[in-house]
Amino acid sequence: MHSHILTPALTTRIRAQRLAPAADPSAGAFHANLAAALNDRRAAHSLRTISDNNPQQSKKIDFASNDILSFNATGQLYHHFLSELTTANPPGVNINIGSTGSRLLDGDSLYLSQTELLIATFHHAETGLLCSSGYDANVAVWTAIPRPGDVVLYDALVHASTHAGIARSLAMEKFEFKHGDVEDFREVLGRVVREQGLVRAGRRSVLVAVEAVYSMDGDVCPLREMVEVAREVCGTEELRGSVQFVVDEAHSTGLLGEKGEGLVSALGLEKEIAVRVHTFGKCMGASGAIVLGSSLIKTALINFANSVIFTTAPPFPLVATIRASYALLQSEQGQAARERVQHVVRFFYEELTSHPAWHTARERGLLSVPLADDWDSRAFQSHISTVWTRPQYMYWLYFHLHAEGYCVWPIEHPVVPIGQSRIKVSFHAANTDEQVQGLVDAIFVWVEEVTANEEGRANAKVTHAASVVYEWMRSEGLDGFGMV
Ligand SMILES: Cc1ncc(COP(=O)(O)O)c(C=O)c1O
C-alpha cells in the first residue's frame, strides 16, 4: 500500500514545500525577491509543481481530468482527428501547418473562418472568433467589450481568466455579487442603476460575468432567473438593452443542451445573451476556445483585444482537432458519451445517498456533498461534484482516496477561499459503474475509519493512509498537509 500512497506526484508536491535557503545577497535583488516570494508560497504549503499527475500515466482511476466525454481516453478523438486531416487536406492541396501570422495579417485562412461559421451555427449564434485558449478568449472579451464608463458585475466565483480580463477592462466600476445568488444580483444591479448616473440615463451599460457551470463547485448558473431580474430592474424604455451578459460556457460545452450546445442554448436564451465563451480544453478533449456573439462583438474583438491582435492565429492542427471534436460530439458516439456521463453522475449520487452510513456521516460533519442534496430533482447532472469533510480531515480523505487508486484533487486556497478546501470529483463517460461504486465504498471505508478513531474503537488517532504519509514526511523533516 505504501507505494500506492507515496507516489512521485505526491512526494514531489510535498517535498517542494521545503523552504529554500535564502538567495545569496550578492546575486542581487532580482533573484532574492523572486526566491522570497516563492518561499512565502512554500511557507503556506501552496507551492505549485509540475509532476506526473496524469491519471493515465499514474494508472489511477480518472475522477479528475477534463476529458469528461472520454474522447481522448477512448481514442475516438484521435481517429476523428486523422479523418479530419484527410478531409481538410485533399491530395495536391498544400495546407500550412503553422499559422504564418496574426489572424489580422497573414494568419487567416478559409479553414479557420469556415470552422468559426460551423461552430457558430452549431450553437445558434451569429458569428464566432476562435482563440488559442479559453484564458485568451476571456481576456479578449473583457479588455475589448466594456467601454469607458460601463459597469461590470461578476459572480464571486468566476474564473481567474475573467478576473484578469476585468482587471484590465476599461470599465471603471466593478462589483461582485454573491455566487449564484439571484437576489444578491438584483440588489447589486439595483444599486448600480440607482447610483451610477450614466447607467441610469441609459448612456452606459452593465456587463455581467457568469459561468454556465462553475468549475470548482459544479453548480449551474441560474441564468434564466438572472436575465429575468435584469429585465425587471432595467425595464424602462431608456434602460432597454443596458444589461448584457457574458457567459463562460467552459464546463457546459459538449454536455448541456440537446447536442451539447451549452447552457444558453439549452435555455433558448441565444438572443438574450451578448457573448458566450466556449472552451475546448474540457469536455471537448482538445484545446482553444471560441467567442460567440454578433458581428458587432467580433469586430470589436479584432479591433480592441490585444490578445487577439498581437498573437499568432490558432494553427491548423488545433483547428483540425476542434473540428474533429465537434464532429464527434454530433455523432452517435458523442450522444452516447453525453448520456453515459449523466448515468455515471446519477449512479454516484444514488449509491452515495443510499449508503447506510450516509446520514450519520453527514450528521457527524464528516461528509458533505452539496450537489447530492437534491440530485434527483435536477434534469441535468453536472459532471463536477465536490466532497467536503471537516477542514482538518480534508487531506486525510485525499490521501485515502489516492492510496485506493482514485485520481481526485484537493482544491485549496488560493483557488478557493481560505477554509473552503474540498475534494473535486469529475465524472467521465469512460468511468465504469464498478469504478463509481468503488469510489463511494472507499469514501465510506474512510468515514468508518475516522469514526472508529473518534470513538476510541481503534487504537489510532490518524487514519492509515495519512499516518503513512506523515511517517514519511517526519522522516524527511517536512510538515503541513493536516499533519498531527
Ligand atoms: C471557467 C473557465 N473559464 C476559462 C478557462 C480557461 O480555459 P483554457 O484552459 O482553455 O485556457 C477555464 C479553465 O480552467 C475555466 O475553468
From TrEMBL:
A GO biological-process term: biotin biosynthetic process
Gene3D superfamilies reported in the protein's UniProt record: Aspartate Aminotransferase, domain 1, Type I PLP-dependent aspartate aminotransferase-like (Major domain)
Keyword Coiled coil (UniProt): no
Alphabetically ordered keywords of this record: Aminotransferase, Pyridoxal phosphate, Transferase
Signal peptide location: none
Highest rank taxon of the organism: Eukaryota
Domain Aminotransferase class I/classII large: 59-443
Cofactor needs: pyridoxal 5'-phosphate
Transmembrane segments annotated in the record for this chain: none
InterPro entries for this protein: Aminotransferase_I/II_large (IPR004839), AON_synthase_class-II (IPR050087), PyrdxlP-dep_Trfase (IPR015424), PyrdxlP-dep_Trfase_major (IPR015421), PyrdxlP-dep_Trfase_small (IPR015422)
SUPFAM superfamilies named in the record: PLP-dependent transferases
An MF annotation (GO) of this entry: transaminase activity
UniProt keyword Phosphoprotein present: no
Family: Belongs to the class-II pyridoxal-phosphate-dependent aminotransferase family. BioF subfamily.
Name of the protein this chain belongs to: Aminotransferase
Source organism (scientific name): Canariomyces notabilis
Taxonomic classification: Eukaryota, Fungi, Dikarya, Ascomycota, Pezizomycotina
